[in-house]
Amino acid sequence: MAASVLTRFCINKSKDSIRFIQRRYRVKTKWAATRPTFPATELALHNFDTSYSIQLRDLWPSIRVAMLSEQKYGALINSFSSAPNVITELEAQGCKDFISIDCTRNEVHQSSLDSMTPHRDSTELDPAALQPSMSPDIKCLVFPKGDISRFNPARPDSSGILGYYLLDAASVLPVLALDVQPGHTVLDLCAAPGGKTLALLQTHSVNHLWANDLSGSRTMRLRRTLQSYLPKEFLEENKIHITSTDGRQLGMTEEKSFERVLVDVPCTTDRHSAMVEENNIFKRSRTKERQKLPLLQTQLLLAGIQATRRGGNIVYSTCSLSQLQNECVVQQAISLAQQELGITMQVQDLRWWWKLWPEAYPTAWMSVVCAAYLKSPA
Ligand SMILES: C[S@@+](CC[C@H](N)C(=O)[O-])C[C@H]1O[C@@H](n2cnc3c(N)ncnc32)[C@H](O)[C@@H]1O
């Protein structure tokens, strides 16, 4: 009975009353024709202005400028290539390895640890416990601060292996934070197009790497990247397993299998969304997908937690400043891991990390500003 009433009448809400009117007399709002269409980049920027001006307060204007400035690339040196003089030639152009240059690192590290101490909650690691030893094998060269010169395309060696891979310099930070040690089995849950996978392999510590991505076409890109940067023999050694599956399932199927898990989730890709119209997640047609991101991110992080062995580490990273996609996701995933899986995680906020690399700043702001490092107690 109630259903038949609902199909014949609809509710008309006016200012202070609700009336039922027959469906055939209602005037349907024509959203598609009457709603103004704004470029997705404008919607993105409006959204960021509204939320980040509250979240980041005085910092937002300068971060906004950084976000709208030309992207600064880094050249991730490919140690599998025998192309001669790659580093020397880049240094001759004024580039430096941003991972090793900062001599004040320890000073900054200490002050960063001090300044964050009062804000820690009970689930956070003691910052002193987070001293990932940075792999000396990862080298990423950048032009000096303020210099946005473009890199020449990488040259191949005699076997066709390219000398460096261009990426946002800050993309290397989650890999450094993962702290891969010799013999580790590593899962890269959302791996395509493969910049971080390649950086993981530069450590020469990975015993076995599983690189996964849901998108078939992006997984093909990942495969092609690895073929251009790794010797054929290395790829034939079965050290790398590439799959294209929903990462949310790997938590159950690969439970407690990895010492290190990288969860580099799909997100609102803030810089891209503010600058590029094509494939923009702020397009009206992608509204639902955008709204579901925090749920997807939580499920992916939970899967990553489940796939980690006791005592292992997980790094969660996004290229968004959104608290909803960063802190909230991490908090939600660790509480679900506790309640549903009985796994207790300790969490470390990695925001202080970007202070270690002033040369890469402000790039670091944009890519991994809210990465988190989670540790499963041994
Ligand atoms: C930020 S990108 C990863 C970038 C990559 N880590 C790199 O460094 O090149 C996020 C990726 O997550 C993938 N993705 C989206 N949903 C997924 C899911 N349910 N499971 C696994 N991967 C997913 C997307 O296809 C996209 O390639």
UniProtKB/TrEMBL annotation:
One of its GO terms (cellular component) is mitochondrial large ribosomal subunit. The keyword S-adenosyl-L-methionine applies. It catalyses: a cytidine in mRNA + S-adenosyl-L-methionine = a 5-methylcytidine in mRNA + S-adenosyl-L-homocysteine + H(+); a cytidine in rRNA + S-adenosyl-L-methionine = a 5-methylcytidine in rRNA + S-adenosyl-L-homocysteine + H(+). It is found in: Mitochondrion. S-adenosyl-L-methionine binds at residues 190-196, 213, 246, 264. The active site is at 319 (nucleophile). Transmembrane segments: none annotated. Belongs to the class I-like SAM-binding methyltransferase superfamily. RsmB/NOP family. This is 5-cytosine rRNA methyltransferase NSUN4. It comes from Cyprinus carpio carpio.
